[in-house]
Amino acid sequence: MDDIVLKLLKNQDYVTLFKLKNITNLADIIDTIERYNIIDTETLITRIRQYELFEDKYISNPKEISRESLYSDIEDEHGVLIETISSNSLMIYIPLFSKVELDELAMSLNYLFTENGVNSEDIVYNYSYITPFTYKRLTGEILTEHDYDIRTILRVLVIDCIEQGGSDLHIETRHIDGEACYRVRYRVDGTMITNERWKLTKPLMELLCYNTIAEETSAQENKLGTIGIETVISDLLEDGKYQIRICIIPVLDGSKFTARIQSLKTVSFNIDQLGFDKDVSSGLKDLAKFRQGITLITGPVRSGKNTTTMAMTNSMDRDDIVIQDLSSPVEILMDFSQYDYGENINNLVTILKRIKKLDIDIVTLNEIPSKDVAFGVLELAQSSIGAITTTHLNRIWMLPHKLYSYFGQDYKDVLSYMNGVLTQKLYPKLCPHCTEIKSIDVVDSDLIKRYLREHKVSNIYIPSGNCTHCRNGRLSSELRPYGELLIFNDEIRTDLRKCDSPYEMEEYLKNMIKNTEKSLDYKVSKAINNGDLYYEEVLTLI
């Protein structure tokens, strides 16, 4: 691949795309960059000028031009666009890479002016070069969905999402003023960012939904039907670094397309390197020593639960024990056996039953997707096999309701096998370059204001805006985990069994944790007061 590609592109990820499409010459590269919105046209032209790719040519990007029918035949003959600048001056726009003979073009214009009684010697011809895609736009040529490679569109969008720090790609059908329209958005640190460059049509949207999954599913499975379809693409970028999990459902006038971008990485760090407070780090080290029982790592989606789980395994002597990971998908590559059950819950249940015959010491499971799986994990614990698994909890004291949803009236039986439960959340660090200290009186929300006062927050820090270092005051590249951890002992288990309902258990746990320095409320409030977190992060705790 020519080095010129690297000069034109934002990063080397796009080199993969060009190699996959076997694009090597500069003309095709520039056309592809514009066609697929890899770089906006203004940036593209800046780079062309910067690297002097066409040293002797003036390059522009006109948004629109005033054309006259007088020149239409000459425009068609020579493949140019002509605009009258003044009474004695023309601007002639020429597509890059075109074979326009300027002398022949000038002769045609001179003849035209002579025919119309104008002295051509009084006319100044100015030349400007434009990209081939800009030429098509100015001529009114409308590209159809068949002019695009659907898989390339998806690659471009996924790469762009990754560049922005996004975890999920959304392509949505919506209605504005009664008309269906389509937009592309990325989830970045919990916030939705719109890709303004892509203007999807309904046919292109349909092809993207159907053709994207055509290679991954059979013809019968490829039909969206009424409930949609899910699939996994492991080789979209062909670099082995990412797995794309696609879910599509039919909606009014189109589809809802979501692609979750899973980064396949190897975790080599230990518990101390996760960034938790000392109480959590110390507790996780203790839990990693257990060789039986159940440890739950909980939190919302994308809060680093699997990373914490695998960091715990790095604290174990893996030469002395056997660990088996059961995941869908495998997000983190480890140096022990890993099994991807591929969303097939029945397979997972079967594997859990066979674990007992495989001489396994520790099982890690990236989620508990069903009651059958929950009972399977319990059977492991009853067989003296350790289990570290994740589930979704907003706070520790919601654990009893989660156990009840899994085990019904048998939910208390699990308590005998519980080692501990961690609830963790990831928050971006507050930008130190643009935030200024304010009184909590400036907070509009009475709910937030009441919470801040209750937890003795006296100062908040608000972004001043227009900062080049952050996104809305948050440093997306600096995420820190905050957690609250409960390690079970006989006293806690006995007290919980005495409770008559999950609600009584909830109150017991809430009173145990909520007003201590180990609670998320205390840690988050302290960070807000110190200028480390944005005050609106408390909405995840209320």
Please explain how this structure is put together:
With 542 residues, the protein is of the alpha/beta class. 33% of the residues lie in helices and 25% in strands. It contains 18 helices and 20 strands. It has helices at 3-8, 13-20, 26-35, 41-50, 72-78, 102-115, 132-138, 150-163, 202-214, 278-287, 305-314, 345-355, 371-382, 399-407, 446-454, 490-498, 502-513, 520-529, and strands at 81-86, 89-95, 124-130, 168-176, 179-188, 191-195, 229-233, 242-251, 254-263, 265-266, 293-298, 323-327, 332-333, 337-340, 362-365, 386-391, 418-430, 435-439, 459-463, 474-487. Strand 7 and strand 8 (242-251) form a beta hairpin. The chain is elongated, with a radius of gyration of 30 Å.
Q: Strand pairing plus helix content: what structural class?
A: alpha/beta
CATH class placement of the largest domain: Alpha Beta
Summarize model confidence as the mean pLDDT. Answer: 87
For the termini, the CA-CA separation is 53 Å
Percent of residues in helices comes to 25-40%
Unreliable segments (pLDDT under 50, ≥5 consecutive)? 218-222
